[in-house]
Amino acid sequence: MADRTGAAEIADTIGTRAEVAAALSALSEQDREVLVLSAWYGLTAKQAAVVAGCTATAFAVRLHRARKRFRAALLRAGHARPVHNAISHPHFIQRESA
User: Fold this and answer.
1) Taking the complete model, does pTM exceed 0.90, yes or no?
2) Distance between CA atoms of residues 74 and 54, nearest Å
3) Are 62 and 54 in contact (CB under 8 A)?
4) 41-80 pLDDT, tens per residue?
């Protein structure tokens, strides 16, 4: 994400790398997988569902729940401000199925 436009804004919004790493490591492997498929690789729910071996609907539910747990983990990791804006950033939003 570092070379994408707005990376500085993302960093300002979601906190330091250490906080994010701590929050991600606190999540289950399945939660990390759905977040990475969506945010890092930019896959749609349909594409990510193929990778995860589930339906697009099941993936969307998993992603929603993983985002909630990620927010909570960020707060526990020491992130002082609310993170709802971070999770609503375009890189974290569920893309429409193609």
Assistant:
1) no
2) 27
3) yes
4) 999 999 999 999 999 999 999 999 999 999 999 888 775 5
Taking Cα atoms as reference points, which of 61, 70, 50 lies closest to residue 94? Answer: 61
Nearest to 56 by CA among 43, 47, 65: 47
Q: 6-27 as b/e, with b when 16 or more CB fall inside 10 Å?
A: eeeebeebbbeeebbebbbebb
Quick one: residue 6, left, alpha or beta (phi over 0 = left, psi -120 to 50 = alpha)?
A: left
98 vs 92: CA distance, rounded Å: 17
Torsion of CA 36, 41, 44, 49, to 10 degrees: -50
